[in-house]
Amino acid sequence: SIDTTTNRFKVLFKTNPSVTSDGFKLSWTKKCGSVVDLSVVGTGTIISPNYPKPYQPNLVCNYTLVALGQIIYGVFEDFNIEGSMSGEIPCRFDNVSLTVTRPRFVTPVPNSRLYFQMQHPQEEVYCGNQPPQPIYSLNKLEMVFRTDMYFAPKGFLFKYFTIKCGGNITSPTTISEPNSTDFRSCVWFVTAPPEKVITIKIKTMEARFVMCRYNNIKLYDGHNVTNASSLIDTVCKTRGPGVKTRFRSSGNLMA
């Protein structure tokens, strides 16, 4: 059986001019929820049923993303879920709940390619029309979309992919990546206390063969690494005239 994560599924049937057989029979049912192995697909999209039209009442949709040994990164590019009135229990009517295991970055062992400290899974519940901050979780991300029988906005669009190295930084530290010929895409999410800002200084960076397009460090104001408008700068060297090596966030989040 095959489960999709959107409301579209394409079947392409090809034949040649010489060999025939009995063909096939395909049956399908409409449901919501799925289990996705990201070691197979790598990236994808989850949308609420009927998106971008209003979602149906009385839904309980369970989505599970699995990527052992990797960080799953996701961002809500559109989000409109029935919220609660002031004074009511938050998100009591419709909501999206996420169970995440946030990896905490620890100063790496020399020549270590990946060093995480596990944290306990946490459930986070969201509703309203403001997209949550980007989500990242180690090994597995569970999403449950629940609705009641009444008012229904258009729902959500959630995009995800895997990150093979990186982590979550909550205190001053030094990141050191050893020389490697392997292709890697690493993301570190830096969080400072509220009302503080973050300063990052790049001490050494030299892109191999001066190919800045493929070997670089990108710095983002906030945790949304898919939004081009959040990009502060792209660095591929730390020496030379006019090269900038110190960067500052506007708030307490940076990546």
Automatic annotation (TrEMBL):
Signal sequence bounds: none
InterPro entries noted in UniProt: CUB_dom (IPR000859), Sperma_CUB_dom_sf (IPR035914)
Pfam families: CUB (PF00431)
Domain of life assignment: Eukaryota
Keyword Transmembrane: no
Domain CUB as annotated: residue spans: 32-163, 165-255
Alphabetical list of CDD domains matching this protein: CUB
UniProt keyword terms in alphabetical order: Disulfide bond, Repeat
Keyword Cytoplasm: no
PANTHER family per UniProt: OVOCHYMASE-RELATED (PTHR24251)
Name the UniProt record assigns to this protein: CUB domain-containing protein
Organism: Cuerna arida
